[in-house]
Amino acid sequence: AQGLANDPKEEPTSGGYDVNEAYLEVALPLVANTAFADNIELSAAIRAFDYSTFGSDRTWKLGLTWKVNSELMLRSVVSTAFRAPTVDELYSGNSPSFEQITYPGAQDQAEVTVGGNDQLTPEEADTTTIGLVYEPEWFDGFSMTVDYYEIEIENAIASVNEQYIVDQCLKTSANADSALCQSANVQLDSTGRISLNNQQQNIGSEKTSGVDLNLAYVFEALDLSWRAALDTTYLDEYVVEITGDPVDYAGLVTAGKGGFADLKSNLSLKVSADSWSATYKARYIAGMDSYNCLNKDTCYAPTTPTVIYHDISGSYIVNDNLSFSAGVNNLFDKQPPYYTGNTDSNTDPYTFDVLGRRLFAGVNVKF
């Protein structure tokens, strides 16, 4: 009745810019062959750039690597970063989207205009990483890497969660003059339909930190080669500050920004011989709470459960010119969890497998 369609028109993308860059990198050995270090090395880099749209700036990086002995290496990097908006972020054509919104007296789906924004300015960031690599001589074939990371971004480029916009700009008049609410121009008509703009914008700041862990073990057994690996990421925080009221998305799943599981892991086990190999993989995603559920007691699905996917694959080499491969992704046909807050797909396609079990096969021929 309102003339809205599921395949709305999108305006064309058009625009561009020019950039010139120069950089310098150096590596300086500080210590070698001492009682407390096999070697210590300092690395440094600087990059200067000039954009036709954003002017000139520079970034830098300092790194320190301390190889204590043949088993243990410590490392740390501090740096600044600069990211100019992409052509798509600047000039992508506007198009309507329809997102689920919770607001008293309003329809549960809002008409949202999305697209680029030619008023964007570059992102700037400070990053810090501290980690170690451990390969013990007493445990042949085993290795472990652990890295802590912390990233702070100013003028972060993103589209804001639509529920957050409504909460900040429609529920209260205190933020009416904020840059977010002025840009969003949230409207509520007499039929209860909400409309708003949510183009890409410099939202304020983002801060994320966490720990990456990698364990690997390579060994020989039963006349076969084996490799086991575990990659795990723990997300400690993912804080977005837009109007002075920071939101920590760690452990939340959202309709617009996707999922921010506080724990993700990938396990793989590969066995191989001269002419064949077989691989098993498991993907783990911790459960999350729905950001859009303002009242957990009234939401049909306020959380997503822990999800584990299983994949298998194999390959066979006939000769130097011919090989075959095949496998199954999502072996047990695990369906994506439903959660309240995503109208279009009822789940988060950025995080979860929405295709179900699927088989693949391939042939590699060299001429």
From TrEMBL:
The keyword Transport applies. Residues 14-331 form the TonB-dependent receptor-like beta-barrel domain. It is a multi-pass membrane protein. Its main location: membrane. GO terms for cellular component: cell outer membrane. It is found in: Cell outer membrane. Keywords: Cell outer membrane, Membrane, TonB box, Transmembrane, Transport. This is TonB-dependent receptor-like beta-barrel domain-containing protein. It comes from marine sediment metagenome.
